[in-house]
Amino acid sequence: MNRFKIILVMIIWGSLGVFTRSIPLSALSLAFLRAFIALPVLFVVMKRKKVDKVSIRVFHLRS
After folding, report:
1. pLDDT per residue as tens, the chain (63 positions)
2. Alpha-carbon distance 12 to 42, whole Å?
3. So where are the chain's domains?
4. What are phi and psi of 24, to 5 degrees?
5. Which of 30, 35, 60, 62 is most buried by a 10 A CB count?
6. pTM listed for this prediction
7. Could you tell me if residue 50 is left (phi over 0), alpha (psi between -120 and 50 degrees) or otherwise beta?
8. How far apart (Å, rounded) are the C-alpha atoms in residues 60 and 37?
9. How far apart, in whole angstroms, are the C-alpha atoms of residue 42 and residue 20?
């Protein structure tokens, strides 16, 4: 299953250039649209996996 996911991601990543060349938008507009679409998708995925908040651990180094 993991190998299939990696191959699928490689195919999608490699085909992005073909699709972005055919879209008559600027690079800034494309970046905005990607982020605008990714936000609700990530929200749904995080809610589905029941991730409430992201925790960041800070390690203190003693010198």
Report:
1. 789 989 998 998 888 788 778 888 888 998 898 899 999 988 888 888 776 666 666 666 665
2. 18
3. 2-36
4. -85, 60
5. 30
6. 0.50
7. left
8. 37
9. 22
For residues 8-46, one letter each, b for 16 or more C-beta atoms within 10 angstroms of the residue's C-beta and e for the rest, the string is: eeeeeeeeeeeeeeeeeeeeeeeeeeeeeeeeeeeeeee
The amino acid sitting at 63 is S
Two tokens, residue 9:
């991601």
DSSP for the chain, please give it.
-HHHHHHHHHHHHHHHHHHHHHS-S-HHHHHHHHHHHHHHHHHHHHHHTT--------PPPP-
Q: Tokens 């929200």 correspond to what residue?
A: 43
